[in-house]
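Good morning,

Attaching, inline, the backbone tokens for the sequence recovery test we're adding to the shared suite. The designed sequence is right after.
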């Protein structure tokens, strides 16, 4: 793959950095807005890898913008613009922010991950093997790894600032954010997943599971925030190659996790450097997911 400049960390003169996450740098824009910048950092097992993935931040941004538009009849969202020319002067003069930044509404973020699973893999598969349940949902016996569930399951999780997110029951979920908000977030999450899954299936991609985040605006509206239905936040499988009972060919971050599982690494910082072939293959998978889902190639 041709050499492409990567962005591992940003600094925007004139804007205050509110938060630097595993992937995104978040800046305050006045009292009501935020600038979210998707870098090319990649994390696995809650550790940020030392080398970035070319184009990753731009792919995540472009794909999220695509989904926000497609899903706008189901839920309002935080996106105002992803067009650099429509952003404040402090942002416009920084060319490395182009294509990887979104100006969005500031919200009070619900401290939970809204996970929806249509297939049995990852922590859900491990929980099923151990107990026959996933987040309090009793499942039929004899299900296979990566098997399709009878119905999509809403399986919330805590959102840990450090360490691993933990699966929780819907009862615990409601205790954290309140019954009314919990029911709203569950309803929205399942509706978004069903719409997106049907769309992706028609394009040849299975969305096995995904996670959403929601926030509360100053006037009390619950809206979709952060990234949505990207290879970082979802499992994307090839429908053509799908076969339950084994791990699946994927277009997502699972490829990096599987490589790391082959190493003698204790999954604690410092994380090992990713070799060039793994970096290039990850970019290729993310680009392919974007192309299949949107019908367009990312402008490089």
């Amino acid at each position: 793959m041709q050499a492409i400049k990567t962005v591992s960390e940003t600094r925007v003169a004139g804007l205050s950095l509110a938060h630097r996450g595993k992937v995104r740098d978040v800046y305050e824009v006045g009292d009501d807005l935020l600038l979210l910048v998707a870098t090319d950092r990649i994390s696995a097992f809650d550790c940020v890898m030392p080398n970035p993935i070319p184009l990753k931040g731009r792919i995540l941004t472009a794909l999220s913008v695509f989904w926000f538009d497609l899903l706008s009849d189901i839920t309002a969202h935080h996106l105002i613009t992803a067009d650099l020319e429509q952003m404040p002067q402090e942002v416009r003069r920084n060319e490395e922010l182009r294509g990887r930044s979104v100006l969005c509404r500031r919200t009070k973020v619900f401290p939970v991950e809204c996970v929806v699973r249509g297939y049995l893999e990852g922590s859900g598969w491990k929980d099923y093997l151990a107990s026959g349940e996933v987040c309090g949902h009793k499942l039929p016996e004899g299900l296979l790894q990566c098997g399709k569930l009878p119905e999509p399951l809403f399986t919330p999780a805590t959102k840990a600032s450090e360490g691993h997110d933990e699966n929780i029951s819907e009862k615990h979920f409601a205790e954290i954010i309140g019954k009314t908000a919990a029911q709203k977030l569950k309803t929205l999450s399942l509706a978004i997943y069903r719409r997106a899954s049907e769309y992706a299936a028609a394009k040849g991609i299975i969305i096995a599971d995904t996670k959403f985040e929601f926030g509360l605006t100053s006037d009390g509206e619950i809206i979709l925030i952060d990234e949505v239905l990207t290879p970082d936040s979802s499992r994307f499988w090839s429908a053509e190659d799908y076969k339950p009972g084994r791990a699946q060919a994927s277009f997502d971050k699972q490829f990096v996790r599987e490589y790391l599982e082959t190493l003698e690494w204790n999954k604690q910082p410092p994380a090992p450097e990713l070799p060039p072939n793994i970096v290039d293959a990850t970019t290729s998978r993310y680009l392919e997911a974007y192309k299949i889902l949107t019908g367009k190639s990312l402008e490089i």
